Amino acid sequence: MSAKYDDVLANLSKQDKEIEGIKTRLSRVENVSTEREVMQLRRQVNDLEQYDRRQNLEVHGIPHKRDECLLEIINDLARDLSLPLLTEQEIDGIHRLQSKPGHVPPILVRFVSRRTKENWQDKRKELQDKKPELRFYDNLTPQTKHLLWLTRTRATEMGYAFAWQRDGKVLVRKRPGEPKIRITCEADLCKIVNENATGSTDAALLATDQQNQS
User: Which of 77, 122, 142, 184 is the most buried (most CB within 10 A)?
Assistant: First the structure.
């Protein structure tokens, strides 16, 4: 009788351990699922925030002046680029962004019309010719900006010629004429692979402008 009782206890103990093992595995699965859901939600929030910035344009390189009127400064630039002068009704806001010490804070212009912003963006090459110290950039969220940095770093390591962003979408291309690859999150960086592992592509070809491709 005692032996049977001991067997029952041993079986119960074994079952308890198996149940605990199942609970542990289930908890891990739930945690992974939760992490994926959180990552997905974060991506959705970032996409919405980036979409909300679609009519924003950053102008880099214009020195800060005391008691400056930013609309006048931007319209001086409009004259240089043969763009129509902006009125207060055509912009939803204009201010300088925060910057690191020693750096010129960029000017952020939020246009009422997406088309007006695109007209300014179309002048990027002319801006480089006439005022090479200035740059136009999309207003990226911190998450998108970080992803772009990671993508460029990975692209350089893997010998890709182009890494850029367009309308908040991060893209890479191994060489001219090849298909674009969209990078939506850090997990997508594994798409950037060096099939030949030769590293022969000149890293200097890597695009440094955020929008040098369409």
Answer: 77
Q: Is the pLDDT assigned to residue 59 strictly greater than 90?
A: yes
Residue 170 · residue 184 · CB < 8 Å: yes
- Structure-block tokens of residue 69: 């009127």
Question: Which residues neighbour 131 within 8 Å (Cβ) at sequence distance 6 or greater?
Answer: 61, 77, 80
Choose between 92 and 21: higher pLDDT: 92
Q: With contact defined as beta carbons under 8 Å apart, do 120 and 136 qualify?
A: yes
CA distances from 4 to 15, 17, 36, 45 (A): 16, 20, 48, 61
φ, ψ at 78 (rounded to 5°): -60, -40
Q: What is the predicted pLDDT for the residue at 213?
A: 45
The values of phi and psi at residue 99, to 5°, are: -145, 170
Amino acid at 205: L
CA–CA separation, 135 vs 62, rounded Å? 9
Q: Does residue 89 sit in helix, strand or coil? A: helix
CB 109, CB 139: distance < 8 Å: no
Q: Side chain identity at 169, as an amino acid letter?
A: K
DSSP state of 212: S
Q: Does the predicted TM-score (pTM) go above 0.90?
A: no
